[in-house]
Amino acid sequence: MSILIRNGRVIDPDTKLDEICDLQLEEGRITACGKNIEAEADVILDATGCYVMPGLIDMHVHLRDPGQTWKEDVVSGARAAARGGFTTVLAMPNTKPVIDSPDRVDYVKVKADYSAPIHVLQAGAITKGQKGEVLADIEGMIAHGIPAISEDGKSVMNAGLYKKAMELAARHGIPVLAHCEDANLVNGGCVNEDENSRSAGLPGIINAVEDVIIARDILLAEETGAHLHLCHCSTKGSMDILREAKKRGMDVSGEVCPHHFTLTSGDIIPGDTNYKMNPPLRTAEDREALRQGLKEDVFEVISTDHAPHSAEEKTATMRKAPFGIVGLETAAALTLTELVDTGILTPMQMAEKMSYHPARILHLEGRGSLAPGSEADVVIIDPDKEYEIDTRYFESKGKNTPFAGKKVKGRIMATICGGKIVYQDKERNLVQ
Ligand SMILES: NC(=O)N[C@@H](CC(=O)O)C(=O)O
Ligand SMILES: [Zn+2]
Ligand SMILES: [Zn+2]
């Protein structure tokens, strides 16, 4: 199988290429990139007016498999990812049961290998059952292929235990993905603590809930030499602390999710639980800091924290509904609309944060790159296509998004994974 993508704006952070040219894919690999490639191909795609980027990589998703497959499963999640332009996702281990052993890692791997259209990777939990008491079989899971460990959904509050996990991660050269939330400071909060929470009479979550654990984790990473990656950063403090740690030359990185760089707590429609996620939507000042941090590459990753829940679960009150919103099928459009179209990020920075940097942090050789020899994982995006987000077209089982009906600019036209077209837009056929 060979594919020739003609006349797109090829944007490759690895080779620093940003040029209108052709890209040739053969037998699952990228084989050539250049102007007017004359080779024969089984399929020719006309990418005129489109960005051609390395397939997007989301290093933070929840696929709910095993145990909560009414919300999502490996296959529906992977299809949603393909529709969103992603060719690799990393699933968090807060499933039921928790992915804390080699055989549970294998369960996801086998299911994904047989039936997912894209690459699905699995992170291993740090403690058994995510109870924060004893370490999980981290080395066993590393032997079975996990590219990272994470306790996402919570922080490991026992710093001594966490330090041991970091030592293991450092020894094996894998990153620790940190959900930063001080369990003792949350205080039952369900939205950001500010004038909006007070007028709505809802318990609030202060910024320090996140910031104190970020500071602690950075100190522990410095001590152990582990690569620390901060999940879903939402506060101005996260940006300040991360910037300062990087100045000291530390091996630490951070991600921001589209909802946190797009919305503030002031946008919450009272009672609409599709605005409830953890960490919560913060203030305009926090959002501004996140945007600035993305622009200045303090944050090198954009991830979705795709957190599907059923409509029924989300009909609960703001206090009781589960935290989390879906993100795979809206992330590229929100990044293009909110950050690229506004001049905050260049298209090259988008490709870095949504593909190249995640590949480097997770040590995914041959991914996040369009250099010849790389895996044939490619996304074709029309940056000018305008439309309204419509959850009826979502491949995800989760429709829980505050962005339904939002006007955006930028649409995935095709996703190619391992040299196969795994998603194509129905309106505009690129095949020539
Ligand atoms: N982000 C969320 O609001 N929810 C996540 C957990 C998490 O990412 O911490 C979930 O698993 O639902
Ligand atoms: Zn989290
Ligand atoms: Zn998460």
From TrEMBL:
CDD domains: DHOase_IIa
Pathway: Pyrimidine metabolism; UMP biosynthesis via de novo pathway; (S)-dihydroorotate from bicarbonate: step 3/3
Domain Dihydroorotase catalytic: 52-237
Binding-site list for Zn(2+) 2: D152, H179, H232
Cofactor note: Binds 2 Zn(2+) ions per subunit.
Pfam families assigned to the protein according to its UniProt record, in alphabetical order: DHOase
Record GO biological process: 'de novo' UMP biosynthetic process; purine nucleobase catabolic process
Task performed by this protein: Catalyzes the reversible cyclization of carbamoyl aspartate to dihydroorotate.
Protein name: Dihydroorotase
